[in-house]
Amino acid sequence: MRLSSNIIRQEVLMILAKKTFYIETIIFPLTMSLIMVLASSNRSSANLLNFIILLSIYGVLQNALSGSARSIEKEKYQDTLSLHFLSNISLHEIVFNKLLANILIGVFNFIILVALFMVIFPLSIYRFDFFITGFALMLITSLTFSLCLSSIFFKMRSPYAASSILIRLILLITGILIPLELFPRSLLFIVSFTGVPQVFNLIIYGLNGGQLIDTLYLIMLPIVLVGQLAFGVYRFSTAEYNYLKTGGI
Amino acid sequence: MDIIKVNQVSRVYTSSNRAKQKQVVRAVDGIDFSVNRGEIFGILGPNGAGKSTTIKMLTTLLLPSSGDIKVNNYDTFKNRKKIREVINVVFGGERGLYWKLSGYENLLYFAKLYKIPSKLAHERIIKLMDDFGLTAFKDLPVAKYSSGMKQKLHFVRALINDPEIIFLDEPTNAMDPKTALQVRQIIMDLKKRGKTIILATHNMLEADKLCDRLIIMNKGKIIKMGTPMDLKKYLQTERIEIILNGLHDETAFNFINTDAYTVVVSHKDSKTILEISGENLHLNTILNQLLLKAYEIYGISERVPELEEVYLKSVDQEVI
User: Fold this and answer.
1) I need a surface site. Which of A184, A196, B116, B211 has the fewest CB within 10 A?
2) Arithmetic mean of pLDDT, B178-190
3) How far from chain centre, in Å, is Cα A99?
4) Residue at B76 is within a domain
């Protein structure tokens, strides 16, 4: 997997040039958080921060997956994707670098949102080590999980639409709308293969304390990440041939 | 020497409809041709003829269902990376560029994809932009470029890796006549620089003027192949135009209108024009007959058929 600063820079420039960028990435999560706090019984600043953090994590994942899918869809439409291939860049390199660029944007949003929050409310972190570990794992999970799914989306006519539907499902089932502690154990076991519930839990625990997810799931996490990465790389190794064979680039 | 060899290549697409019935479309059907180094080779055909599919297969972006393609002696699948080092593509119209970036930034982006060192990339971009008259617009976003400027930028982008073979897919599509002329001039210049050019086009005038050899495709098959002159000869009908002084009635020339010859009569400026076509025209016999009937001959000229006529006749015959 080769890092291409050229593709990352280009992708970041394209994202930042979007007119709705700040509305989608900062104003929307802030407004949503406020609405969620107003709708909930607990209207404390800690609860508001919870929602902001959760929506930011969701934002990183969404940026990674939907952003890359949208970008690839656009490149296909503009015929610039085939020009990438002509320069001997492989499919997984294109996707990997786009994912990285989109994750970088997600991190940028995360920092802006937390900084905004800190201006409004005083912030105290319960366990800084857990918070940082969770944050680092969030970035790695976003990358491996998105790489694993991008290989499936790549052949689709509208990967953006497909990834958007999926990301909403993730939002629904990984702790934002339904708290993890309410999950039946069997469902939590299945969902934890995405790595997302563990990451959510670590960050929230780092911020506010509360209940830490079962150790089993935390031990599972590195295996899950390696598995996702291996699956993504394997899929991409055959995807280029399949793509050339079926529809061309 | 052949730089491209296409041997019995077919491309089949399979799709299923709502009733889950498989539909098989033969986009390209058993085509054979070769391209010589340094020539301009045309691929002509109506929409859906298989031109773009052929270009995609030649440029390693699509695998043939059967047959094999060699570019620069390399197989388009097994050695596709080797091929990609020596080719590039120019798309017609608005595709293939990043509109929000400036012309220079676009070129720098693609130069970096080709791993061209920064200094060399900068020098090459400046030189090429200068050659194509784009220097004054290098920092302007591509969105503000005219169609002609965009097309020139496509050419510059395609030359960024100094390719031996350049594929042009409808390069003058939707272009005004002046810009189209400039683009044709660029193509001729590229040939002079020793580049091999594969030109897919609808434009007969362009194919006639630029191509050393060409193929006409229809429904995935090659229906004609040769030089533009060879193809014009294919019509097998010679055409002469005889201009007579005075206005004469059409029926007066029925004596020429036989099974072998066809006469079309028209009038212009008190002259009668006879356009006679047929196989093995005996001009002497026709002239003698006209002189015997006391017609006054003003002029005689031979009319060479246009490539467009060859194209239309070939495609029409296929349709029938």
Assistant:
1) A184
2) 86
3) 9
4) no
pTM, 2 dp:
0.77
- Across the interface, do B88 and A78 touch by the CB < 8 Å criterion? no
Residue scoring higher pLDDT (B121 or A40): B121
Helices (H), A17-44: 21-22, 28-39
State the average pLDDT over residues B89-112.
Answer: 88
Q: Is B161 on the interface with A (CB under 8 A)?
A: yes
Q: What contacts B266, CB < 8 A, 6 or more positions away?
A: B272, B273, B275
> What is the distance in angstroms between the Cα of A222 and the nearest Cα belonging to chain B?
33
How far is Cα B16 from Cα A168, in angstroms, rounded to an integer? 30
**Can you give the CATH number for the domain in which B265 is found?**
3.30.70.100
Q: Is the ipTM of this complex over 0.90?
A: no
Q: Where are the domains of chain A?
A: 5-246
Residues B256-282: tens digit of each pLDDT: 766 677 788 888 888 899 888 776 667
Cβ distance A249 to B61 less than 8 Å, yes or no, reads yes
Contact B96 A83 (CB under 8 A): yes
Q: Which domain holds residue B300?
A: 236-304
Domain count, chain B: 1
Task: Identify all chain B residues contacting A87, using CB atoms and an 8 Å cutoff.
Answer: 84, 110, 113-114, 161
Using a CB-CB distance cutoff of 8 angstroms, which residues of chain B are in contact with residue A88?
A: 81, 84-85
Q: Is residue B245 part of a domain?
A: yes
